[in-house]
Structures are given as C-alpha cells and as structure tokens.
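Troubleshooting: if your tokenizer reports a length mismatch, compare your output against this known-good record of 138 residues.
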Amino acid sequence: MASRLTEISLDCHDPDLLAAFWTAALDWVVLDAEDGLVEIGPVRSDDSALLDAVRSGPVAPTMFLAAVEEGKEVKNRMHLDLSPIDRTRDEEVERLLALGASRTDVGQTGEESWVVLADPEGNEFCVLRSLAPGHFSL
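Known-good structure output:
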C-alpha cells in the first residue's frame, strides 16, 4: 500500500487572511483554527468516515496555514494549479484577482496556456485551462 497525500502545509504571516482567500478561491471551509494555525479543506464527514475514505483511495487534501516569522524570499519550489470548472480560465483569473490575488512573473513567455498568479502573501499558483462543459471534453 502507498501513502496518501492528506495535507498541504503553507507557512505564512497571516493564516486568517490566507484562509479567507483560499476558502473563497476553492469553495472550501475552515475546518479548524487555533492561534497561528488554520486548517481549511472541503466539507468533510466525521473522522471515522474520513479515515475509511483515506484508506480506500485518494481524497482531497486539506491545507494547513501556519504563522511563521520569516518572509517569502524567492519563487515557490512547489505550487498549486487550479482548473476552473464552471467558467473560462480568464473569468476565473478575474474572480481570483477580485479576491486579492495578483498577477506575477516567474519567467513565463506569454505563450503559456496557464496564468500565473500569487495569493495575498505572494505564494505563486497557476490557473490552468477550464474544465467547464463546452470548454473541455473528452
């Protein structure tokens, strides 16, 4: 049996600020919060049902936002890719910009099929092609 990806951890200055951004961006909820640490993710069932689900196959990970003193200095070595499911890529970019994201340059040429943004603390992420009906099909 393999391991499962269950959490993604993101160091930040203001976990509450990033929780507000990422819950709105991903249609997630705050699952738990304490001083300096916020866990966000999809709405989930009780712990025993979640454990059964994780053991039987992959589930969406949660994200831990942890307060740290040091600041972000360089491009992330790992980032999230988002795929809109009910609108075009460009409409999703505009929605995320309105939530507090910003455009950022990590060396892209302008010919990419994705758009690079940063969350309110500068963590890069990409918005990929739309998976909405009529925009993507198999």
